[in-house]
Amino acid sequence: MSVAAAGNKVKVHYTGTFDDGETFDSSQGQDPLEFEVGGGQVIPGFEQAVVGMKVGESKKVRVPEENAYGPHNPEMVIESSMAQFEEGLNPQVGQQFQTEMDDGQPVLLTVVEVEGDKVTMDANHPMAGKDLNFEIELVEIAS
């Protein structure tokens, strides 16, 4: 029986949870997630967990933040003033805006605090700084 290796296209069912047990994502009730092992399409820790699995095998893994979305980078939290927003736009906590880095790379900013004229936004991935838990079932391997 073959095992998942770099270059294989695989299909997996998974459930992802935080340490408090809250589910943040799941493929249950949907089509399985399909990706190429080693293709960088999923977080590194998830990809590494699939390597060596056999079809029908299930496992539970804990992916530390450095193998998930990375540590929370305080340098990616920026402050702005209301004057930076279009007239009539009142940013609210949780609201997201897309902008571009100097190199043209798109960045998603999430408003984390609004205090008077000051708006604090975070460009980190929402799950940066978090260890993640996954229950993974390998459904299919294709070459």
Can you tell me the overall shape?
A: elongated
How many individual helices? 1
Q: Which architecture of the largest domain per CATH?
A: Roll
The tally of strands reads 9
CATH topology of the largest domain: Chitinase A, domain 3
Percentage of residues in helical conformation: under 10%
Total separate domains = 2
Indicate the mean pLDDT: 94
Runs in which pLDDT lies below 50 for 5 or more consecutive residues are none
Give an overview in words.
This protein has 143 residues and is mainly β. The chain folds into two domains: 9-70 and 128-142, Roll (Chitinase A, domain 3); 74-122, Thrombin, subunit H (Beta Barrel), CATH 2.40.10. Helix content is 5%, strand content 41%. It contains one helix and nine strands, in the order βββαββββββ. The protein has one helix at residues 44-50; strands at 9-17, 23-26, 33-36, 58-63, 77-81, 96-100, 106-115, 118-122, 132-142. Strands 1, 2, 3, 4 and 9 form a five-stranded antiparallel sheet that branches. Strand 6 (96-100) and strand 7 (106-115) form a beta hairpin. The chain is elongated, with a radius of gyration of 19 Å. The model has no long low-confidence stretch (mean pLDDT 94).
